[in-house]
Amino acid sequence: MLIKKPDDIKSSEITDERLYMNRRLFMRGAALAASTAATGYLYQKLLAPEPQRLTPAGKAEPGTQAAPKSWGLPGEEATTYADITNYNNFYEFDTNKTSVARRAANFVTRPWTVAVEGLVNKPKVFDLEELLRFPQEDRIYRLRCVEGWSMVIPWLGFPLSRLLAEVEPLGKAQFVAFETLYDPKRMPNQKSDVLDWPYVEGLRLDEAMHPLTILASGLYGEPMPPQNGAPLRLVVPWKYGFKSIKSIVKIRLVERLPPTTWNKAAPDEYGFFSNVNPQVNHPRWSQATERRIGEFGRRPTLLFNGYAEQVGQMYAGMDLKYYF
Amino acid sequence: MKDIQFRKILVFVNSLVPLALLGWDAYRQRLGANPLEFITRTTGTLTLLFLLISLAVTPLRKLTGLQWLIRFRRMLGLYAFFYGFLHLATYVWFDKSFQMRDITADVWQRPFIALGMLSFFLMIPLAVTSTDRMIKRLGGKRWARLHKLVYVSAIGGVLHYYMLVKADTRKPLVFALLLALLLGYRLYTTYSGRLKARPLSISKQTPPG
User: Fold this and answer.
1) pLDDT for B178-206, tens place per residue?
2) Half-sphere exposure of A302 (CA within 13 A, CB side)
3) Residues of B107-126 as b/e, b for ≥16 C-beta within 10 angstroms?
4) Does ipTM top 0.85?
5) Strand pairing category for A113-118 and A124-127
6) Which residues of B touch A266 (CB under 8 A)?
7) CB contacts < 8 A (A, B)
8) CB-CB: which of B21, B46, B167 is closest to A48?
C-alpha cells in the first residue's frame, strides 16, 4: 500500500478554494431548486385547484354571443358557462365540486329512459327523445345552494306538469318521488358510501305541478352537460339546490311523503321542504346571506330564493321553522 | 456541520411554496368558481398540515436519532400559526368584511367556528413565547408545559374540520388518524418503561451528522 506524503500531492490536484465554494453554492442551489419543485408538485397534486374544463372542443363560451346582459332578473347577470359547469355538487361523481366536471366527462346518457309510474292512470316508460320533443323553454333561475353560494342559470326545459299530465295522476296521489340513475360503473363515486344510493328526492304534488318547476334538458341553449345532471334533471328554483335531483330515471307518484337522500343522511339538517329561507339557519351555518358565484361580497338571501310572490301561498299558515 | 443554517433556509423556502402558488393561481384567476372558498379551505388545510409536521418532529427525531431535526420545529410551528392567521383573516376579512356582529353571532351559534377560533387563539401564546429569550425567561420546564397547548390546538383544529364537512368525512378522518398516531406515540413513550423519553436538546451545540 502506498501512502503518499503530503508533498507528494501536486498542487494542481488541490481543488481551488474558489472552485470549491462555487461547487458548494451550486449544490445548494440544486438542493433548493429540487426541493421547491418537489413541494410545488405535492401542492399541485394535493391542494391546487383543478383547471376549469371549458365547452366542447373549439366552441366559444355560449354566453358571450347569445346571452343578453340581464336575464330578466334586475341587477343580476347570468353566471358564466365556465363557472356553472365547473362547480358542481354531484356526489355520484365526486364530493369535490371542482372535480366533478372531469370525473363526469365521459358519462354516457344514451340510450336513456324515464319511467313515470305509481298512482297514475297511464304509467309509461318514456324514451328521452320523446321528452325532448316537448316544447323546450328558456328559464333563467337563481340557484341557491344550501352551502351558502348561488348562481343565475339559463336553463332549457319544460314544466314537470306537462309530463305529469301525460300520465294522469290519480286523486290519491299526494307526493312525487324522484330517483337518480344507480350505476357505479358509470357513476364511479357510487362505489363509496358517502350517501345512500341511489339519490332520491321528493315534492308535494302541488309543488311538482307549480309552473316554475321544470325538468331541464340543457343550459345556455346547449344540451345538459354531464356534471350538471345530464340528460334530464329537476329544477325547483325556490328550494335549496340539492332538491333539484339530477340524471333522473324514475318518477313515482305516491300517497305518503317519500324519503329524501339528504334528509336520511342528516335529518336535523335537511328537511323535506328545504325551501330557501334566510330566517331558518342550517344548524351549522347561517343562511342569511349567500355568495353569488362571480361576485366578491355576499348578497342577502331572499325568502323562497326571491320567488315568494309565485310560490308563497303554497305554504300559507305553515310554520316554516318546523317544516324546514 | 455548518449546513444547519442552509437546511433551515430550505425548510423556510419550501414552507412558503404553497403560499406562493396559491398567490400565483389567484393572480391568474385560476382558483375556480369560488376563489374565496378555495383560499379559506386551502389555508385551513395548510394550518393543519404544518401542525402535524411540527408534531412529527419529536417522534421522528427519537426514532431516527437525527437530533438536528429539532432545529426546524420552531419554524414549522410558526408556519402553522402563520397559515392559521391567513385562514382566520380570510374569514374575517373576505367572508365577513370585519362585521364584528356577524362574527360574534357566528361564534355563538356555530360550534365549528368557535372551535376553530379557539384553536387559533391557543397558538398565540405559543408563537409569542417562541423566541430564545422567552424560553429563558420562562425556564425550560415551564415553557415545555405551556407548549403542550399545541396538542389541544391540533385536536381542536381537526375537530373543526370534521364538523364543517357535509357528508364526506374521509379527509378530516385522515388528519384525525395522523394526529392520533402522533399523540399516541407521545402517550406510549411517556407511559412505557422501555422507551424512556430522552430530554429535549435545545442546546446550541451542533450534533454529529
Assistant:
1) 999 999 999 998 888 654 545 555 544 45
2) 14
3) eeebebbebbbebbebbeeb
4) no
5) antiparallel
6) 167
7) 84
8) B21
